[in-house]
Fold this protein.
Amino acid sequence: MACIASPILLELLFFWNNDSFSKGLKAIEKSTSLVIFPLFIIGNYQRVNFLKIIKTYVISTTVLIFFFVIRFIIVYPDFVAKYLNRIDLWEMGYQFADSIGIHAPALNMHLAFVTVCALYFVFENFRNQKKIGFKITSFVIFLFSFFFVLLVNTRMALINTLIGFLIVFFYEIRSKFNLKKIVLTGFVIVVLLGGILFLFVQKNPYMKEKYSSVTFAYMDKVGKLDEIDHPEIKVYNSLVTRVSIWKSAWELSVQHLPFGVGASDGKPELFKYYAATNQKFLAKYEFPVHNQFLDFLLKFGILGPFVVLLYIFTIGYLGYDLKNGMILSFFIIFFTSNLVDDFLLRFDGIAFSALWSSIFASYWLQQKLTLDKVPEAV
């Protein structure tokens, strides 16, 4: 519980460093779920049905996103028409996420985890001799969830999804239950996913550019984005923009060691630094840090990145100790997502991670206490 609450404990420890009392309280208020979820969920860990919660989450999220897709097609036919005619293909995922009211990388972080869990239940249903109806339903849910990841089409989420598939498949193989059936199911899934991905790339040629030339364009312009003609068009989502942000965040953090600028002053101080260093493009769009480790370094100084490591790697430890592919996949998804974004800066990212960390910890406690109660063999 202390590990999960560590970010808000850090905010309390460095509360004196905020320039504004009210903004400091607001920052703490945004992080209260880091205390509330562990208190109520881990405090009642015996009542947590891990697999049932995961299954409900997968089904309900997939069904909900399906209806949002139908709504998007009806309400925003112009965007759909542009997408089908291969015009401005880059904007489809972001427009769809905006229609729901959530940032596209945040939405796809959820969907990546949903898809990985859906794959787990496909293997479980085939392995445990479930009726054909259960097998078909789980397979359809899995395919739809993977399609939604491709629809939103953020780079990190797609990479994390594929890594998650490998982790789940590895643990299914490692379990050694009905190895032949698992391998056969895995082969069918790989063929189908490969086909879906191939067709998606054929219909969306921008994906080839996005994962190659667009991502790594203008890397010689780090810290000099204003030298690029219309940077908001050419490099808004490119790696060079993030590296330029990270460079500024690092330089500003070094200036404010060892205690940082304060939890409520991270973004304002960074925006001022953009202006002070004459980085007009970054100052105009007021980009946040886009790296959780640098964000905490800027806010809290030397101690900040260590607390982020403690918070995120607690999830990794739970997954590794339980040998659970879904929990390990969540760790990979959340860890890598926070390398290129700062989800502990957002309420949805804080609540999302606190909720699942508490559920994972409850499941870990159940397994550990069950093992402790098993008598030794005579």
Summary: The chain has a mean pLDDT of 84. Residues 322 and 364 are 7 Å apart (CA to CA). The first helix runs from residue 6 to 13.
